[in-house]
Amino acid sequence: MFEAKLQQGVIFKKIVDAIKDLVKSVNIDASTSGLSMQAMDSAHVALVSLKLNENGFKDYRCDRPITLGLSIENLSKILKCAGNDDTITLQTDEEEPSSLKFFFENQQASKISEFSLNLMSLDSESLGIPDTDYSSVIQMSSAEFSRICKELSSISETVEIETSKESVKFSVQGDIGAGSITVKNNQSDKDVDRVDLQIDQPVKLTFALRYLNMFNKAVSLSSTVSLNMSEENPLMVEYKIDDLGSLRFYLAPKISD
Amino acid sequence: QKGQQLLNEYYNQG
């Protein structure tokens, strides 16, 4: 028996909206500790990793680990039927479920929707991602980072991110010309302006903006985003989902041939 | 021109 009830169902809707351009189908692994999901884009350049802790749910029960293979497109269709204020409950009684039940309830419990989504059997192509001590970590407004990526992607397809003790520089070079945006440490008490740099080792890495713009669809999940980098490592972009878990994106760098 | 790397070059399967 597996049942997970999320009080703020809108979070689940936002998560699916944030990943639906990147991955087509995912395996959600349910265990006693919560839900986890890892999936790569078709080119194996980017990866999304979701972890939702059981104590972030209103109700959570998972008698034994199960894997739920979902088509993101079909999941989206079902979640469109959930109101932003609804609670969302996922449920199945089977051990090897062939479908997953969804219940959407409005606040007054006066409207209850029930859907059953057919499950897919997907071979898991999961990667072992070691816990990394990143040498450059940038915490900043997710809206601001999203804006920087959008603005720079009109000049070039790739952005070079260079960190130093007191600032991070986003540089682009394209046919029309070049440009850079430098953001300094800023302990402002306004979320949108605050920038926290923890630079043990400066890095200079280049990434495809197309993927960063896809990751930034998660901006509605958290007002802050963290960029985690080490030389010759994929970038890890993390959106923490308050007291529920986190949505992480990994992106392989571009390097000179 | 910079070449796009793949994640498999940094992380091992499963």
In short:
Chain A has 257 residues and is mostly beta strands. Chain A has helices at 9-19, 72-79, 142-152, 209-215; strands spanning 2-6, 25-31, 34-40, 46-53, 59-62, 66-71, 87-92, 99-105, 112-118, 127-128, 136-141, 158-163, 167-174, 177-184, 195-199, 204-208, 224-229, 235-241, 245-251, 254-256. In chain A, strands 6-2-3-4-19-18-17-11-15 form a nine-stranded antiparallel sheet. In chain A, strands 5-1-7-8-9 form a five-stranded antiparallel sheet.
Descriptive keywords:
heterodimer; A: 257 residues; mainly beta; nine-stranded antiparallel beta sheet; five-stranded antiparallel beta sheet; 4 helices; 14% helix; elongated; B: 14 residues; 2 strands; 36% strand; rod-shaped
Mean residue pLDDT of chain A: 96
**Global structural class of chain B:** mainly beta
Strand order of the largest sheet of chain A: 6-2-3-4-19-18-17-11-15
Listing every helix as H and every strand as E from the N terminus to the C terminus, the arrangement of chain B reads EE
Chain-averaged pLDDT of chain B: 90
Beginning-to-end CA distance, first to last residue of chain B:
32 Å
Low-confidence stretches of chain A: none
Q: Work out the radius of gyration of chain A.
A: 20 Å
Radius of gyration of chain B: 9 Å
Helical/strand content category of chain A: mainly beta
Please work out how many helical segments of chain A DSSP would assign: 4
- State the share of residues found in helices of chain B, binned by percent: under 10%
Low confidence ranges of chain B:
none
Order of helices and strands of chain A: EHEEEEEHEEEEEHEEEEEHEEEE
Based on CA inertia axes, which overall geometry of chain A fits? elongated
Number of strands of chain B: 2
| SS field, number of helical segments of chain B | 0
Strand content of chain B: 35-45%
Main beta-sheet strand count, sense and barrel state of chain B: none
Major sheet attributes of chain A: 9 strands, antiparallel
**Proportion of β residues of chain A?**
over 45%
